[in-house]
TrEMBL record:
This is ABC transporter ATP-binding protein. It comes from the Bacteria. Pfam families: ABC_tran. GO terms for cellular component: plasma membrane.
Amino acid sequence: MDILITEALTRRYGSLVAVDRLDLRIAPGERRAVIGPNGAGKTTLLDMLAGAIRPSGGRVRFDGRDITGYGPARRARLGIGRIHQRPAAWASLTTLDNVAVAGARHRGGVRQSRRPAVELLDRLGLADLAGVEAGRLSHGQLRQLEIAMALAGEPRLLLLDEPAAGLSPVEFERLAEVLRDLPSEVTLLLVEHRLDLVYALADVVTVLRDGQYVVTGTPDEIRVSHAVRQAYSGAVA
Ligand SMILES: Nc1ncnc2c1ncn2[C@@H]1O[C@H](COP(=O)(O)OP(=O)(O)OP(=O)(O)O)[C@@H](O)[C@H]1O
Ligand SMILES: [Mg+2]
């Protein structure tokens, strides 16, 4: 059974259709990338999946359940985690506390030992920054922190909005490794302009343009697809 299904999922802003009747089916453990030029509707799609914005039409099903009317907190509790296009953390909390709080929030506010949070920071290369306030981190470090925070919630579906944006080459390699090493049962939905990361990680790639579905295929199919070249032609990507 598919873990995530969208049915005619639509979001309008006035006369602009940011996402137009999108049907997606994603299998458990799948690594799905969604690509497309600026303004294709990728972030709008993730916002609707995370419950941050309401669709104008259509449905979202997660793990057999219709979650269209669920808010973000309820979706997070079901196991939907996300990383924003602009990284977000509590600026006045330390790096470690941000991860610990994110983990505790997932467990309904129950605080646990700091061990899992310390281990996550280590995996993301942030161990040396555990005691530093998040407000003092660089953009790249903040991005790694947000990934640690999302993983602290032990998501079953992880929505990633341009996780590689603004990373240094070293940070990029670490991110690719962390995502590659996620447990195979975690489903990934990766929105990314860095096609090297997309092709390194994704099993299946879906292309959008101007809110419209263009095509879905394997990385090899997408790489040579005429439709994809057309979708990007004349667009700034
Ligand atoms: N709050 C909003 N109000 C009005 N229009 C919006 C709003 N949010 C998004 N849009 C429009 O919806 C369309 C899709 O935007 P979206 O941010 O989803 O694109 P994207 O694929 O994530 O682009 P990018 O690659 O630049 O991040 C764009 O035309 C955008 O201007
Ligand atoms: Mg976006």
